[in-house]
Fold this protein.
Amino acid sequence: MEHFLNLPPDGSAHGPAIDHLIGIVHWLMIVLFVGWGTFYLFTLVRFRRSRNPKANYAGVKSHVSSYLEVAVLVIEIVLLAFFSVPLWSKRVDAFPAEKDATVVRVVAEQFSWNVHYPGPDGKFGKTALGLVDADNPLGLDRSDPDAKDDITTINQLYLPVGKSVIVHLSSKDVIHSFGIPPYRVKQDVIPGMSIPLWFTPTKTTDEIREELRMTYSVADVMKKVKKVALPSMSTMPIKKGMDMSNMMAMQDYTDQSGGTLVSKNDKLTSENIDKIFDAGRSSVAARPTAGLDKYVSLEEVKDSSGNSIVAKNDVLTEDVVTKLVETGMKEVNVRKISNMDLFVVMQDYADKSGSQLAAKGDAVSEELLTKFADAAINEIVLAPATPTEIACAQLCGLGHYRMRGYVSVVTPDKFKEWYDQQEASLAPQQAAPDSTASAAAPQDTVAAQGSQEIHH
Ligand SMILES: [Cu+2]
C-alpha cells in the first residue's frame, strides 16, 4: 500500500511507523468505500419502487447493520488507541535530552524561514523586537554574552545525520506550517507560541537524492520542435475607455515632462489606454501578446548591426518576442521548454571526444539539454536538486510559494565543518560588537554559500 501511495522517500527514524499508519488508514477507507458503496447499490435495487409500491413503516428488523457499525467503530478505536495515539504521544512527549540533540530555533515569517543555532555554548542569545531589521530578521542581541557565538541563517537548515533534532518553532506574523516531507514532520507555526518538534534524520540529503534518481529522455524534449508564427506590430487607433488587454505596447509612452506613462511590453489595459489617450495621442504601436513562454528558441537571432539579441535556448518571454518582432521576423524555430531546471544530473557526462559536458550535481538547463542532444546522448539520469525542503504547508499569503527553506542533512563531519565555518565568519564581528552593519556579515555569507551548496 505504501508503495502504491507513492510517498516521498523516508529519511526519518519514526518515518516507517507513520507510513505504516497511512497505509492502514487507506486500507480501512478502501474497505469502507467498497462496503458502503455496495450497500448503497443493493438498497437501490432491493427497495426499488416496482417491488415496494407501498412504504414499509416497520423498517429493518435484522441486526446485521448495527453489528457492522459497531465493527467499524471498534476498528477505528483500535487504530486510534493502538496506532495513532502512541505514535503521536511519542512525537510530542518523548523528546530526547537537549544535550543529545541538535537544537535549533526556526522563526517563520512572510516569506522565509529564519534559522537560529545557539553556537558552542548551547545557549540561545536574547532576541528583541526592537532589533529586528532587514539585516537582523531574528532581532538577535549581539551584545548579550550568550548571543556572541550564535549562528543565524535564512532558509538554510543544516543538520547532521543520525542525531536527533529538536526544532523550536515560532512565527513573526501569521500562521505558517513547518513541513519536511522526506523527514515526515509537519507542525503548524503559530505567532506568540514556541512549539517544539523533534525527529531523527537517518539519511542525508544526498542519500535521499540518490533514491530519487530517474531517467529522463533528452530525445523526447528535442522532438518537441516546431515553427511558431510571431505576432505582427501595428499602429492602432485608440479611444478613451478602450480595452486592449490582449495587446502590448511596442514603445514607451511618456507625458510632456518625460515621465513614463506606459512602458514597452506593458499590457494595454483600459487604464493604460486612457493614460496614452489623455497625453494627447490617438493611436498606439501595439502587438498581440504571444504567450510563447513555454518555448525556447532554437536559433540565434542577430539585429541589423550583427549583435546577438536572442541566444539559442533563450525562453521566448514577451520581452524576447518583442525583440524578434522588431527585427521583422515572421516566424521562429522553437522547441518546448523542458522545465527541468530544478533538477541536477546524477553522473558525469562527456561527449564522444571525451570533453566534459556536465559533472554530477550540475543543474539541468535548456542549454545543457541541447549540448546532450548535440552529443547524441538520448537519456540522462537526474534527480531533484533540493529533495529536502521546508515546505510551508499553510497558505500564508500571496508569496507563500516563495517560502522555501533548504534542508541540508549532511554527515557529522561535514556538519562540523559547516558549523566551524559559520563560527569563523563571526570572529571579525566579535572584535567590533558595536557595529550593526557587521551583524549582517554571517547571514550574507550563508545566503551566498547556500545557493552553491544545495547541489552537494
Ligand atoms: Cu508560510
Remarks:
- Residues 108, 176, 392, 394, 396, 400, 403 surround copper (II) ion (CB under 6 Å).
